[in-house]
Each structure stands twice: as C-alpha cells, then as structure tokens.
Write a structure and sequence with these properties.
179 residues, alpha/beta, Uracil-DNA Glycosylase, subunit E, 5 helices, 5 strands, globular
Length: 179
C-alpha cells in the first residue's frame, strides 16, 4: 500500500518580545523543502527588509533565524506549501486563523505585518483592505498590511516595496510606538 508523504511545511521563527512578525501568505515549495523563509530566487523580501532599515546587513535566507536578534519574527498565515500563493483558497485562510491568533497570544509581538492583502482580508472577512496600519488590532498586535515581496508580484517595484516597509519601520521606531 502506497503512502503519501506529508506536504512540507516551514517552521516559524518566533520568540517573545518581538517588535514585528512578518506574516507571509504561505511557504513556497523550495522554502519549505529547504527549511528557510523567502528562499525563492526572485523573492525580494531579504533585500527589502535590509534597505528599509530592519536589518543592519543583508540577511541570507539560510540565516533567517538571525532576524530574532533584530526583534523580528517570521510566520505564514497558512502552513501548507504551494508553488504559488494563489493556490491557497479562502477556506484555508479562515481555518488558519485560530493557529495564527494562538501564536500571537503566546509570543505577544508589538506588530504583525501581513505580506499582501489576501490573508488578512480572508481571515478578517474584510472585502476592502487598505495598505498600511489597520484600524483594529489583530490578536492584540498592531496590524499592518505590506505589499507581498514575492518575485511573482510585479505590481510593486523594489523601490516601492522598500518605501512601504520603511513606513512601517519608522512607525515602529517612533517614540509613540513604544506606548
């Protein structure tokens, strides 16, 4: 009798006291197989994170755990790996909400930054989602929507991604953000 191997997943990189947890839609197949976030050749996450001021140097995907030292965490809204994010359906996002809220309750980051509107919109049931900070907290954390840095998302240039991520970085560094 043949058995099917479970689909690969990607471990979270989370800890207590984080400033922001970046929440991707779901892991790519290569990233899940290798065990490192944002591994895809065309993925712009690591350069954008650095250029926006979140890291003092460019972090290689293989060193993704090092972001904890900078007060950053990584997770995915849906654990199942796919070749493209559009292969995740709305029901999977809704089913993933409880696990995501549990992570936020456990680790209590100041902010969760959803990378793209799809996960946040599906989880919250909001049809219209604006970029940037959201009016309501999510799981006790400030909620922020940033453009997805995937190489498949060409709706934003690298410069536009950096600018959007810099807005979050400045907001988290502002004296009022500590309150």
């Amino acid at each position: 009798m043949a058995t099917t191997a479970p689909a690969p997943t990607l471990p979270d990189i989370l800890d207590h006291g984080l400033t922001v947890v970046f929440c991707g839609i779901n892991p790519g197949m290569a990233a899940a197989a290798a065990g490192h976030h944002f591994l895809g050749r065309g993925n712009r996450f690591w350069p954008v994170l650095h250029l926006a001021g979140f890291t003092p140097h460019l972090v290689a995907p293989e060193n993704d755990r090092s972001v904890l030292a900078f007060g950053l965490g990584l997770t995915a809204a849906v654990a199942r790996a796919t070749s493209r994010a559009d292969q995740v359906d709305k029901e999977e996002f809704v089913e993933a909400e409880a696990a995501l809220l549990e992570k936020l309750a456990r680790y209590r980051p100041r902010c969760i930054a959803f990378l793209g509107k799809a996960a946040y919109g599906a989880i919250t049931g909001r049809r219209e989602v604006a970029w940037g900070e959201q009016p309501e907290r999510f799981g006790g954390a400030r909620a922020w929507i940033l453009p997805n840095p995937s190489g498949l998302n060409r709706g934003f240039t690298r410069e536009q991604l950096v600018e959007a991520y810099q807005v979050l970085h400045r907001a988290l560094c502002a004296p009022a953000a500590a309150a």
